[in-house]
Design brief:
globular, about 0% strand, mainly alpha, about 190 residues
Length: about 190
């Protein structure tokens, strides 16, 4: 028998996720109180604390879940094997750019406020974890033999920095980001 999630729990989770995204798009997440989050979501503060440690923690959960959906789509396309490494790099980068576009207001709030460094740091952590996993499963002969954590940190900070530069300049387009990021990717990334 398949496990069944209570629809009330599903509604509560969706309400909390929607509320944190709405609030973080309007103000830095560091200024969002649990009381404000609970009120916006229509739940009690105890319910918020049952789901997360802080508004930042909940926001990161939402952002990671969205990024992970994109990574799963990428894995499906890789498994099909019908695209070249260059096409896969472009598609994966575009997938991340679409994520950032869905949450542009959130990322802009976070990047403009030094107190909200946690959002940027979470983005870097996510890309670093992704890079370590990518290297581990890569069969490319030129994958670096250097310390994977350091390689991953280098790649992750570069990509997150490119996103920050994109969001800081209204004249830079998503296509500009994708073109720049794919141009800077190492040959072994394919």
């Amino acid at each position: 028998m398949a496990a069944h999630t209570d629809p009330r729990i599903t509604r509560t989770v969706r309400s909390l996720e929607q509320a944190i995204v709405e609030l973080a798009a309007q103000q830095p997440v560091s200024r969002i109180t649990v009381a404000a989050l609970a009120e916006r979501a229509g739940v009690t503060r105890a319910t918020v604390y049952n789901r997360c440690d802080s508004p930042l923690d909940l926001l990161i959960q939402v952002l990671y879940a969205d990024l992970d959906r994109g990574h799963r789509r990428e894995q499906q396309l890789r498994a099909e094997g019908s695209r070249s490494p260059a096409e896969m790099l472009r598609l994966a980068t575009a997938e991340v750019a679409e994520h950032v576009e869905r949450f542009t207001a959130v990322y802009r709030q976070a990047l403009q406020n030094p107190e909200d460094r946690g959002v940027y740091d979470a983005l870097v952590r996510h890309f670093a974890d992704y890079t370590v996993a990518f290297i581990a499963r890569s069969t490319h002969p030129d994958v670096p033999r250097a310390n994977r954590a350091i390689v991953a940190a280098f790649m992750a900070n570069g990509f997150a920095g490119a996103i920050a530069a994109w969001l800081a300049d209204d004249t830079v387009t998503r296509d500009d980001l994708v073109a720049a990021a794919t141009a800077c990717a190492p040959l072994w990334w394919g």
